[in-house]
Amino acid sequence: MADPKDQEDHETTADTAEDTNHDPHFEPIVSLPEQDVKTLEEDEEVLFKMRAKLYRFASENDPPEWKERGTGDVKLLKHKEKGSIRLLMRRDRTLKICANHQISPLMELKPNAGSDRAWVWNTLADYADECPKPELLAIRFLNAENAQKFKAKFDECKEEVKKQVEGSGNTDSANKVAEKLEELSVKDKASEGKKEEDKKETENNEDEKKEVKAGEKN
C-alpha cells in the first residue's frame, strides 16, 4: 500500500511542474505604435569609438574638485555634409550625454597627474547640459594603449579641422565661434533678467492702479 505522504508529495510535484510550464498570454489593453527615436547622429560618421570614464573639474565647489560625469563610449563624429567633427560621450544604460563639443585646432590633450591612460583638456563650449559652457574635462581609459589610440585620433581630427579652417580663409573662426556661443549664453541670461524686471514693473503698476481706485471709492 502506497504511503499517503509519498502520494501527496507526488501530486504537489506534478502541480508545481504544471505551474512552471504554464505561460499565459495577455493581449495589451492599449497598442502603442513603434516610434523611430533619432539621436542626431544619423548624419555623422563614427571616426572613433571606445569605452572610457569621464570627469569634469567642478570649480564651483569649495574646495574645487574632480567629479565623475559618467562611464560609456566616447565617440569622435564627423558630419557627412558639413565636415565638422565633434566629441560625443553618453552614459551607459541611460544614454544621457555627458560630453558634447566641437573639436577645435587649439585643443590640447595633456597627461592627467602623470597617468599614461588619462588625458585632460579644455573646451569653451560643451553642450552636455544643452546650454554651452566652458569645461575642464578629463578622460580615463582601461590601459595606456587605448589612451594613445584616442590621442592619435583626436590629434588627427584637430589637423583635419585646422585644414578646413585654413581652406575657408578664416584662420581664427574656431575661436570666434566659441566666443559667440559664450556671448549668446550671457545675452540669454541678461534677457531673462530683463523679462523678470519688466514683469515686476507691470505688477507694481497694477498695484498702484488698484490703490488709486480704492482711494477714489473712499
Q: Summed up, what is this model?
A:
With 218 residues, the protein is an alpha+beta fold.
Low-confidence spans: pLDDT under 50, at least 5 residues? 184-195
* Beta strand count: 7
Percent in helix: 25-40%
> How confident is the prediction overall: mean pLDDT?
79
General description of the model:
The protein is 40% helix and 28% strand. The chain has helices at 4-21, 144-167, 173-217; strands at residues 44-58, 65-79, 85-90, 97-102, 110-111, 118-126, 133-140. The chain has a 7-stranded antiparallel β-sheet. It starts with a helix and ends with a helix. Mean pLDDT is 79; it is low at 184-195.
List keywords for this structure.
218 residues, extended, 40% helix, 3 helices, alpha+beta, 7-stranded antiparallel sheet
Summarize the topology.
Elements: H1 4-21, E1 44-58, E2 65-79, E3 85-90, E4 97-102, E5 110-111, E6 118-126, E7 133-140, H2 144-167, H3 173-217
Antiparallel strand pairs: 1-2, 1-7, 2-3, 3-4, 5-6, 6-7
